[in-house]
Amino acid sequence: MISTVLRDRKDLIKTTRLLKKSMKMLFMTNCSVRDQLLSFYVKNVFSRLELPCAPSTRLTSAVKKLRRMVFKLGDKGIYKAIHELDILLPWIQAYIQTIV
């Protein structure tokens, strides 16, 4: 299971790099690659983490507030959310370490 693999809590594979420089170039220049790569991570990576959580289709009040703020800011809100991924990704890593 994926959660068993995560018990190591860090990337121990130092001889293989998944996201290579050639992928970055494609990501930067090809909208299909951007869409496919982001979709891959959502569907095939994050979804396989088996995080302990009851599924829900309702947004929490905190996420509703975030969503309203992003939409209220329009394009600037989208860029703000993208620039704050450097905050979100460490949160994901820290959370994963607490559950394994």
From TrEMBL:
Keywords: Cytokine, Secreted, Signal
Coiled coil: none
Superkingdom per UniProt: Eukaryota
UniProt key word Secreted: yes
First-listed, main subcellular location of the protein, grouped into a coarse class: secreted
InterPro entries, per the entry: 4_helix_cytokine-like_core, IL-10/19/20/24/26
Any Pfam family the entry gives: IL10
GO cellular component, one term: extracellular space
SUPFAM superfamilies: 4-helical cytokines
Single GO term (MF): cytokine activity
Similarity comment: family membership: Belongs to the IL-10 family.
Function: Immune regulatory cytokine.
Stated name of the protein: Interleukin family protein
Protein's organism: Lepidothrix coronata (blue-crowned manakin)
